[in-house]
Amino acid sequence: MQQKDIVQKPLNVLISILFLIACWHLLSVVLNTPALAPPLEAFKSFFQLITGDLLPHIKISFYRVGVSLVISTLLGVPLGLYLGKNSRADEFSAPLIYLTYPIPKVVFLPVFLILLGIGNLSKIVLITLTIFYLILVTTRDAARNLQREYVQSVKSLRANEWELYRHVYFPACLPAILTSLRLGLGIAMSVLFLVETYATQEGIGYFIMSSWSSLAYDQMFAGIIAMGLMGFLLYLLLDACERVLCSWVHL
What we know:
It holds the Pfam family BPD_transp_1. The protein has helices at residues 3-31, 39-49, 54-85, 87-100, 109-116, 120-144, 148-155, 161-195, 204-213, 217-245. It is mainly alpha-helical.
């Protein structure tokens, strides 16, 4: 990273945060309703709760979304690479994917709660299933559209199937995979909030809804801030992974 970027990027983040807070404050003044707590009250509650009641909810939510991202990546990437490389397998599986992909996976929440219980397992499975399709389709398309010249050049060096996956398909598809993870993260946070509002007393989603039902709007926004920061940190982690694993993209 260049020295200019080391200064400029944190500055851009700070300016964006200040702009967001200014818009939030202006909106709270204009609407003048207790349902929209001013940012000062929300951040005051956030810093009071972060080491107390809110911290356990953050930990369990982070665990649920983190495990879901890892499992969906471990399942979706190899399968997507295989389908993108093998046209016959792709032709056979495409109808199955296109029939099941558009179905909102959250409709299966009652089924998962009955089959897998109300603990972490049902929530992780639902989030994983939602992100899995996004990673699968993106990886498959990236592998299928890979220029044949790259494959042929490595084949001419007598590379076997495993070496093709390792040295051609996976590196070439990695930027698309990380992009799908960024897109999937936003969806994962939405599904996380939804699943934590049903049959549970743990997680940021539960904390937000519990605060809302007790009319503690400052605490409700403290939970929203926590969820936003959690997603922001995960995005930074994905950006860092891209810089390390896809250094050629930033040349």
